[in-house]
Amino acid sequence: MLSRIDLAYEMPRILYALYWVMADVLSALEEAAGKVNERLRFHFMLASKRCNIIVEHLRLALEETGIKIDERLGEEELRRRIGALPIETLKNFRSTIKRLINELASSEGCNASWLSSKLMEFADIICVASGMLKALSDSLKESRDEHIWRICLILQAVAQDLEVITNTHRYLASNPEMLARDVKLSHDP
């Protein structure tokens, strides 16, 4: 287990990697919003607005540590800093969005139960990420360093935003009839 000093040292590296993962999620959501109907665009735009808030919070946290967001991290560096799960989740997320858009463009449309299961899968992963950020923040909150203290506040806000996303995913997945309506109506002009 990492000590508080190790966590304080590693936190900027973790935040930098998390920033780029969330920036990729935001990019994928914004791109997808332009390829779907108005009803689904609503869902994508809600998600992208929340992700944008998270990206901005992470940018503030990085500024607090003195790190400039200048160099995009490659997949291997991201994997080294934050592990394989976020990278594989990002790939799965992009693949899911691509499949959703392709299915919506087909004459058969999208399978709402498949989409519902994917929403639950992502909700579980996002819940883990939120818990990890809370744990990181909680482990450092006793610090007397004003920068670390501010970063802990930001991490708590990011964790809460992730919880909102988790709850939204679960709500959408728990109401497959309404989800199916929005998916079915994707063929409307």
Can you walk me through this structure?
The termini are far apart. The chain is built from seven helices and no strands. The protein has helices spanning 4-33, 38-65, 75-82, 84-105, 112-140, 146-174, 176-184. Helix content is 82%, strand content 0%. The chain has one domain (4-187). Residues 185-189 have low confidence and may be disordered. With 189 residues, it is mainly α. Helix 3 packs across helix 4 (84-105).
Short description:
By secondary structure, this protein is mostly helical. The protein is built from seven helices and no strands.
Task: Describe the secondary-structure layout.
Layout: H1 4-33, H2 38-65, H3 75-82, H4 84-105, H5 112-140, H6 146-174, H7 176-184
Helix pairs in contact: 1-2, 1-3, 1-4, 2-6, 3-4, 4-5, 5-6
Low-confidence stretches: 185-189
Overall average pLDDT? 84
Number of domains: 1
**Could you give the order of the helices and strands?**
HHHHHHH
Provide the helix percentage.
over 70%
N/C terminus separation: 55 Å
Largest sheet report: none
The gyration radius over C-alpha positions equals: 18 Å
The share of residues in extended strands comes to: under 5%
Class from helix and strand fractions: mainly alpha
| Beta-strand segment tally | 0
How many DSSP helices? Answer: 7
Principal-axis shape equals: elongated
